[in-house]
Each structure stands twice: as structure tokens, then as C-alpha cells.
Amino acid sequence: MSELPDKLPRHVAIIMDGNGRWARARGLRRNEGHLAGAESARAVAECCAELGIPTLTLYAFSTENWNRPRSEVRFLMSNLRKFLKEHRDDFLKNGVRVAAIGDVEGLPAAVREEIRATQEATRDGEKLTLVVALNYGARREITHAVRQIAARVQRGELEPGDIDEATVREHLYTAGLPDPDLLIRTAGEMRLSNFLLYQLSYAEIYVTETLWPDFRREEFMEALQEFARRERRFGGLKPDAGTAARHNGRSARARSRGR
Ligand code: IPE
Ligand code: IPE
Ligand code: MG
User: Fold this and answer.
1) Closest by alpha carbon to 56, among 67, 68, 48?
2) 45: which of 86, 90, 105, 246 lies 20 to 30 Å off by Cα?
3) 162 CA to middle of ligand 2, Å?
4) Which residue lies with its CA nearest to atom 10 of ligand 2?
5) For domain 11-258, which architecture applies?
6) Where does residue 163 rank: exposed (0-12), middle (13-18), buried (19+ CB within 10 A)?
7) Cβ atoms within 10 A of the Cβ of 60, count?
8) Which ligand is nearest to the CA of 64?
9) pLDDT tens-digit profile of 39-66?
């Protein structure tokens, strides 16, 4: 394994893209790409557990992916069930807790049941929380949160003026999870595709041309190395900017004005 970077993200979110292109490049059917992609998901989850990255979120099926041919949607659903079933013992052994975010109610009953059983079996896992985003769409998530908050106001449990960022967070599917520090998108597309629009506000974004089925341990380590080199500011200044300004003889007031 390449050298371990000194600064690791606490939460990595991944838009696993490029399964179809991977298959086409090999003269295979798209479904073969989805099968190979499941192995990448396993490999990356294993890396996180080993490295001590406590949360990994994988975008597995979006609310827009229903627009694909019925046969592909069916394959994706069965691939997902297979993934959860096949790896359940490994999850248990490796301290992985599986959680799902998204409109789970809108999934086929068999998939819902597999998610329920996996969540139940792995609930005590403490090493890694593996969050699978399924029938997930950030716009639907935010709409759902707004509805729930409105219902609480209607019941008289909450005053509109008391709604703050914490209230909003509590009603998102990701309640209780930290925001992602690093967003990885494979296969080169520079877009979010309706993924975690609220939670990614300050994530570092890493886009690689590597297609998801080829994204394994080495590629993941490269992304982590790149993350370690990034300088996160959260709207402030570089950690040494204040000192530099002092050396330049600028007043504290000028610095606080941010110039
Ligand atoms: C990602 O690969 C898998 C899902 C979105 C479910 P794609 O199937 O989107 O692969 P491309 O983008 O067509 O190559
Ligand atoms: C994003 O990939 C969704 C998932 C990875 C589940 P898509 O392939 O669906 O995204 P677009 O259509 O290129 O934006
Ligand atoms: Mg795609």
C-alpha cells in the first residue's frame, strides 16, 4: 500500500460512476460493469475499516436512476441485494455497521427486507459506518425534511423562529452523521448528480478519470494523498495568514476586515 497520509478524512462520500463505460470498453454488457463495481465498493470499504476512516457513503442508486431501462434497474436492485447478503458476515467480522439513506420505502420489498436484515445484524459495528445511498436524491431529502419540520410546527411542537441549522440537519436522512470531508467522483464527470447537496457544502472534491470498476485500493490511497495536500479554509484565512499580515505591519482591524 502507498504511504499513509498524515491527515485522513473522517467521512468519505463517493459517486461511483463509470460502470457502463467500463463494460463497453471491454465489449461487455453494462451489467458486467455493475458486477465489477460491487467489488470496488467492497475493496474501498475494507480500506476505510483498515485505515480507521469511520464513515463511508456510497451513492448506489439515485432517484433519477429509475429512468434507465427496466432490465438494468432490475439488475441493479438484485446486485444490491447480493452485495448486502454476500458480505454480511464480513461486515460483522470487520466491525462494519451498514446504514441506508434515501427513500427506502420506494424500493422493492425484497431490497427493503435485505437492508433491514443487514442493518439489524450489523448494528453494533464500531469500526466503520458504511452508508449506502439508495433511491437517494438530495432534493427529495430536503423536501422530506421541510415537510417533517412543517408538521412539527403544525402540531405546535416548534416555533418557526426556533428552526435553525441544527433543526434542518436533524431531519435529513443523514441525521447524526458528520458531513463528508472528501467527495470522490469516478469516471470524470464534474457534477453532483443530486448527491448530498446540503452536506457537501465544505467537502473537498476529487474527480478522477478512473472508471469505478477500476477504482481500488491504490486509486483510493491516491485520493487520500490528494486530500491530505488540500488546504481547507471554511471561509477563513490560511492558518499563517494572520501572522504574515502582522509581519507586514497591518493592524488587527484590517485583518479582521479580511484584507
Ligand atoms: C454507475 O455507473 C452506476 C450507477 C449509476 C447505478 P453508470 O451505470 O452510471 O456508468 P456509466 O456512467 O454509464 O459509464
Ligand atoms: C450518479 O451517477 C448516481 C450514482 C452513482 C448512483 P449517474 O450516472 O446516474 O449520473 P449522471 O446521470 O451522469 O449525472
Ligand atoms: Mg453514470
Assistant:
1) 48
2) 105
3) 36
4) 193
5) 3-Layer(aba) Sandwich (3.40)
6) middle
7) 24
8) 2
9) 999 999 999 999 999 999 999 999 999 9
Any idea where the domains of the chain sit in the sequence?
Answer: 11-258
- Residues 185-242 have pLDDT tens digits of 999 999 999 999 999 999 999 999 999 999 999 999 999 999 999 999 999 998 776 6
213 ligand 1 Cβ < 6 A: no
Instruction: For the full predicted model, state whether its pTM sits above 0.90.
Output: yes
- The DSSP call for residue 52 is T
DSSP, residue by residue, 156-204: TS--GGG--HHHHHHTSTTTTSPPPSEEEE-TT----TTS-TTTTTT-E
The CA 32 to ligand 1 mean position distance, Å, reads 11
Looking at the DSSP bridge assignments, the partners of residue 14 are 58, 184
Residues 66 and 74: their CA atoms lie apart, in Å, by 10
* 183 phi, psi to nearest 5 deg: -110, 125
